[in-house]
Amino acid sequence: MGIEREGFFQQLDTVYQQPGHLMQRKMELVKQVVRPGERLLDVGCGTGEALVQMQDRFEHVVGLDASASAVKYSRKKTGNRNGVELIQSSAFELCFRAEAFDCCLLLDVLEHLEQPHLALSQIVRVLREGGQLIVTVPNWMNWITARLLGLNSEHRAFHTPRGWKRLIENAGFQVDSYRAVRLPFIEGEFWAKKLPYLGMCIVLAAERRAGG
Predict the structure, then answer these.
(1) Pairing with 209, which of 46, 121, 132, 174 sits 20 to 30 Å away (CA)?
(2) Coil, strand or helix: which one is 173?
(3) What is the signed CA dihedral for 169, 209, 125, 197, rounded to 10 degrees?
(4) Domain spanning 2-208 has what CATH number?
(5) Partners of 204 in the beta sheet?
């Protein structure tokens, strides 16, 4: 099983390097909205790609994943870079002090959790007031592949863009923006922001509210 999982992360890592691929486009959009700071937490760090991409914007980056294979692969990818820390742990049990981070990434994570609100309650605790949360989640394609076709069986949570926005706001965040990553037939930033319902997935940027 461990070997299979390592193979999965290897395959996913090659996808990130393919020009024009949906995964690469998502990462580009995430990089556009992330504000530099001192400490970044990447919950569900997967291959470690975001840690590498964001390291020059933060003094210290922490990657956390429940999968031992993900942590092992991320450690191999990040090498001996200074200011990088990797932890195997659950998103429901963040072992950090309150307000320890300036930014948190949740990239393709929430849809895998049966109770995503519990993970968000942990994240709002470890983010400082005004700290940034960046989320990517699937959209209509997830309903088709998981609900209708029986694929992506590991997906547990399903929401519309507005539903994800409401979930994040209820956890103590103010959502600043949410947009489609890619529309099936229409190109252009204007439509990606105006028609998030039609996107294959969405990117949300939010801030922790005072008292959140």
Answers:
(1) 46
(2) strand
(3) 30
(4) 3.40.50.150
(5) 135, 178
